[in-house]
Design a protein that fits this description.
The protein has twelve helices and 18 strands. With about 425 residues, the protein is an alpha/beta fold. Strands 12-16-15-14-17-18 form a six-stranded antiparallel beta barrel. It has a five-stranded parallel sheet with strand order 3-2-1-4-7, sandwiched between helices. Strand 17 and strand 18 form a beta hairpin. Helix 1 (about 25-35) crosses helix 7 (about 190-200) and helix 3 runs antiparallel to helix 4. The N and C termini lie far apart (about 50 Å). This is tRNA-5-taurinomethyluridine 2-sulfurtransferase. Keywords: Disulfide bond, RNA-binding, Transferase, tRNA processing, tRNA-binding.
């Protein structure tokens, strides 16, 4: 059991700007900081008017309802309140997300939101309020030193609650920014956070946790994209038989590992890859189909939080660590090794270039639905080393076993330009 006052945090008596999401985690974060003697200012960040968007009945933190609910979550008579607009920064993150979706990629904007909005624009706004520190309700921890000096003497660690650990979403934050950040609930479990909120009489104690992507929230992803992007129609092709199974309304709304909703098959059908040039979604029957599994992946230039591990990789040419290829996954072992791209994943030319700073990883156990432009976050035990966006998955187990050679031959030629 943990102390109700929370972990020992630096800078007692200093002013802290707490990012308010409207949920219980940020409310308890503010509460713990008050108990530890900080002067707390609650800051609501608004990026755009989500209330005007079609189907947005559960705003993801940017609408007035979240603002009011989050501020009511504070203890009566406690901190001051302020509102911050991300402005061009938020619009830039959103625009880049749409541009990547329009090219058939599957980006995760949460990492960019944290790097450019919560721990850049918000830090700047906090300085205007006279707050030298920013705190959020993320389930992650910080430690002085460690990691070979990464983060200017601050290391990012996994949250104590393994089911809620959010270090994945923080892995691309600038190391210098982490020196001015506090994560007051990172040492607690979600259940402990709710108990603290209930004991303090916070209005958010029983509020449902937020879910979904940064500015999308709980809305249907395909419907959301349809408000901003013209569809990329294509066709579904079975990797085993090569048969066309139907028409895909929009390739941008389909991602690796997803069930695209094709009827008539004896087993559930899953997307195993996309050729965005030829407008093909490759599918296979069964969640355990070998076309969903691969043992290698190509990562784009990494963002390092641990200078020591980056130096180790540069010195010896390989690094053994663990990885998460999506939030909620438990870290798995990986290391750098040789690479051959999957025939079932073909991107636009601007997304297929390979640079000398890219990394190749081999998974000890096959990775599932490794998806271009998702983040691969690297770990050494509790320590988060940084993140790299996935460029391409390696050949699937289905291809290595001699699956659909005709598709592989066609796409290998195109992949040679990568």
């Amino acid at each position: 059991m943990h102390s109700a006052a929370g972990a020992d945090l630096p800078g007692r008596g200093r002013r802290v700007a707490v990012g308010i999401s409207g949920g219980v985690d940020s409310a308890v974060a503010a509460l713990l900081l008050q108990w530890q003697g900080y002067e707390v200012v609650g800051v609501f960040m608004r990026n755009w008017d989500e209330g005007e968007e079609t189907g947005n009945q559960n705003c993801s933190g940017g609408c007035p309802a979240a603002h009011r609910g989050g501020m009511r979550g504070f203890r009566r008579g406690a901190p001051g309140q302020a509102a911050c607009a991300a402005g061009p920064t938020g619009l830039g993150v959103f625009s880049e997300f749409l541009a990547q979706c329009g090219r058939g990629l599957t980006p995760n904007p949460d990492l960019a939101c944290n790097r450019h909005i919560k721990f850049d624009a918000l830090l700047s706004f906090a300085g205007q309020l006279g707050a030298g520190l920013v705190a959020t309700g993320h389930y992650a921890r910080l430690a002085p030193g460690g990691g070979g000096g990464g983060g200017g003497g601050v290391s990012l660690l996994r949250g104590a609650d393994r089911l809620k650990d959010q270090s994945y979403f923080l892995a691309s934050v600038q190391p210098a920014a982490l020196r001015r950040v506090l994560f007051p609930v990172g040492h607690l479990s979600k259940a402990e956070v709710r108990r603290l909120a209930a004991a303090a009489g916070l209005a958010t104690a029983d509020k449902r946790s937020s879910a979904g992507i940064c500015f999308i929230g709980r809305r249907n992803f395909a419907a959301f994209l349809g408000q901003y992007l013209a569809p990329l129609p294509g066709r579904y092709v079975d990797v085993g038989s090569g048969a066309v199974l139907g028409t895909c309304p929009d390739l941008a709304a389909v991602t690796h590992g997803q069930r695209p909703g094709i009827g008539g098959a004896p087993e559930r059908v899953y997307a195993v890859g996309k050729d965005v040039v030829e407008r093909v979604v490759y599918v296979a029957q069964g969640r355990g189909h070998p076309a969903l599994l691969c043992t290698t992946a190509l990562l784009r230039t990494p963002h390092w939080l641990s200078a020591g591990h980056a130096a180790q990789l540069a010195a010896q040419g390989w690094l053994r660590c663990q990885y998460k290829a999506r939030y909620g996954q438990q870290p798995r072992p990986s290391e750098r090794l040789g690479f051959r791209p999957s025939a079932y994943c073909r991107l636009q030319p601007q997304d297929s270039r390979m640079l000398g700073s890219y990394l190749v990883v081999r998974f000890d156990e096959p990775g599932v639905a490794i998806t271009p432009q998702q983040a691969c976050v690297l770990y050494d035990g509790e320590l988060c080393l940084g993140a790299a966006l996935i460029a391409l998955p390696g050949t699937s187990l289905h291809e290595e076993a001699g699956g659909d050679g005709s598709a592989g031959q066609r796409l290998d030629t195109a992949g040679a330009s990568a």
